[in-house]
Amino acid sequence: MTKLKMAMVGGGPGAFIGPVHRIAAELDGRIALAAGAFSSDAARSKEAGERYRIDAARAYSDLNALIAAETQRPDGVDFLAIVTPNHLHLPAARAALKAGLPVISDKPATATLNEALELRRIVRAAGKPYALTYTYSGYPLVREARARIAAGALGTVRKVVVEYPQGWLAAEATGKQAEWRVDPARSGLGGCIGDIGVHAFHLAEFVTGLTVTELLADLAAVVPGRLLDDDCTVLLRFDNGARGVLMASQISVGERNGLRLRVYGERGGIDWRQESPNSFVLHHGDGRTEIVKAGDATLGPDAQAASRTPGGHPEGYLEAFANLYADFAKLLRGEAAPLLPGIDDGVRSMAFIATAVEASRSGAGWTPLLIPGE
After folding, report:
1. Residue 180 CA from chain centroid, whole number
2. Do residues 157 and 269 make contact, with C-beta atoms less than 8 angstroms apart?
3. In this structure, are 115 and 212 located in the same domain?
4. Where is each Gfo/Idh/MocA-like oxidoreductase N-terminal domain found (predicted)?
């Protein structure tokens, strides 16, 4: 099978997520990084190209130059991966899609809800694949939990608790990765809620199959002088009447990447933790507790398709990320990839951010989560 050729915008020297995208995209041998505009500084873009071991002539100084050159090459790239800070997501996606290039983007889709709505119009008009890397939806056991809930293993879902504590921004934000996340000009409307809160929000809806209809938000900028939220608590109401709690924090000292999802139904409950992703606890209504593990013979087709190693051989973040790229490769080859997050997930997530920020700021209490255009 001929490898699909990927271009990347962002991911220059000092970036965290660019190398992650590259490793994930290439893990299964379906995709190869072939070109990039890794930095707006030509020398730094060239340096990144050398580190990524691509043809020096295909390390461009800006995205427009990349698109102009690659769309004219007989061996030009097949799609663009966007791994920049949030404020550059819309212009990069717009330029690529209008040039006929499919797009896979780091989350959130854009910096603001209005930008997300514009991007939705662009995606629909272009008719090209567009995907978002909500990484945690790629874990095999997350997909297994989703399948079991859909099959009725818990009965009617009654309660959803999703938490995502980190501690790395508990003090002054220093360094490239921290500085842009606390800058409204680059991060957008939300701070913590836009960086990790959207992961928690997407995971809750993805696994339960439910949609949030109302929320009550309490967001705070705890660190003195910080302009964007760094600590968030949001109460949720779902479309089936279930209640939920979403907690996201980047000032919780000692926490690393503590994403955890608990779903409770009338007949059972599921508890999954990202820092121990190769199992989840399944509580049965008769008092039994079952530990479901990666590689179990009882796993369904979605989890099995997302697994690469036998049970007992841990798979983690990079493999989950790679599952999203594997799904995207299917889309590009004309196959179905129903679990891959797309533009509608992006718009929902941006509506969640915008609604929570405004509701918290105004003290509005319970507020409907409305999706423009639906």
Report:
1. 18
2. no
3. no
4. 5-132
Instruction: Print the SS3 string covering 13-60.
Output: CCCCHHHHHHHHHHCCCCEEEEEEECCCCHHHHHHHHHHHCCCHHHEC
Chain segment 270-290, per-residue pLDDT in tens = 999 999 999 999 999 999 999
pTM: 0.97
Among 135, 150, 172, which residue terminates a domain?
135
What is the Cα–Cα distance from 360 to 350, expressed in whole angstroms?
Answer: 15
Q: How far is residue 252 CA from its own chain's centroid?
A: 21
Handedness of CA 164, 165, 170, 174 (dihedral sign): negative
pLDDT at 374: 75
Give yes or no for residue 237 having a pLDDT over 80: yes
Query: 270 has which bridge partners?
Result: 263, 282
The enclosing domain of 99 has a CATH number of 3.40.50.720
Q: How confident is the model at residue 150 (pLDDT cuts 50, 70, 90)?
A: very high
At 242, list the tokens. 């279930």
How many Å apart are CA 254 and CA 170, to the nearest integer?
A: 10
Tens digits of residue pLDDT in 249-274: 999 999 999 999 999 999 999 999 99
| Three-class DSSP category at 359 | helix
Treating both helix axes as pointing N-terminal to C-terminal, what angle do 140-150 and 317-332 enclose, rounded to 10 degrees? Answer: 70
Token look-up 């966007």 returns 82
- Number of H helices and E strands in the chain, helices first, is 13, 14
Q: Which domain holds residue 115?
A: 4-135
3-state secondary structure 92-157: HHHHHHHCCCCEEECCCCCCCHHHHHHHHHHHHHHCCCEEECCHHHHCHHHHHHHHHHHCCCCCCE
Angle between helices 63-70 and 89-98 (to 10 degrees): 20
Q: What is the largest CA-CA distance in the chain?
A: 64
Q: How far apart are CA 17 and CA 95, in angstroms?
A: 21
The percent helix, strand, coil of the chain (3-state, each to 5) is: 40, 25, 40
Q: What amino acid is encoded at 330 in this protein?
A: K
Separation CA 237–CA 213 (nearest Å) = 6
C-alpha to C-alpha distance for 216 and 214, rounded to whole angstroms: 7
* Domain's final residue, options 89, 119, 135: 135
44 and 171, same domain (yes or no): no
